[in-house]
Amino acid sequence: MSLTIKSFTSGPFETNSYLLTNEATNEHIVVDPTFEPQKLLAALEGKNVVAILLTHAHLDHIGGLNAVRKLTNAPVYIHPLEQSWLSDPQLNGSARFGMTAPIICEPAEHELHDEQTLSLAGLDIRVLHTPGHSPGSCSFVIDKHCIGGDALFARSIGRTDLPGGDYETLMISIQDKLFELDDDTIVYPGHGPATTIDMEKTYNPYVTGMLR
Question: Fewer beta carbons within 10 angstroms: which end of the chain, N or C?
């Protein structure tokens, strides 16, 4: 498979946006366009971007959505539980965090569903609904690559103290969904460095004690 994954880290929350490229077809997918997307936009100039996937709709994961959408005209995909968050600054958090310009985006063109397979850019993308950090959080699995949003981090997990978050639900998502992936699956989180399922099963202090 001719897949490359490039990360762009920017914004006040140091959020990771990802650019997925199928080198065989020269088609591209953007995941979670964040604040200050200038480098991402430069990388997208003149590219055939076929989709924008959102792991969830917190402000730092959609902060650059309007700019990327305007440049690429690509359709947006989000879980239905967070469709309304795109246009509601209270729900996406931009009003609560005191943004000078609260984030308001148009609705997504497509909705994501658990265990759905998306065929985009010549890639088969398995959708996992992995709530807990937020109700509609999703992870995207392509072969042995997982773009996981804010569910699982290197040696950490997503916070659950924001509206709609739930610790027990997150633990179930990690154990029953993410930890069922192959151990050598690379996890690309919403913040921080990439890791693997095996590394987190072995060393993550938040989850090692819960393994069955």
Answer: C
Other Cβ atoms closer than 10 A to 69: 20
Q: What is the total count of domains within the chain?
A: 1
CATH number for 74: 3.60.15.10
Task: Determine the structural domain holding residue 61 and report its residue range.
Answer: 3-210
- How many alpha carbons fall within 13 Å on the CB side of residue 65? 30
Quote the pLDDT of residue 18. Answer: 98
- Token readout for 150 is 């804010």
Q: How far apart are CA 49 and CA 19, in angstroms?
A: 9
Residues 103-125: pLDDT tens digits? 999 999 999 999 999 999 999 99
Ranges in the chain, pLDDT < 50: none
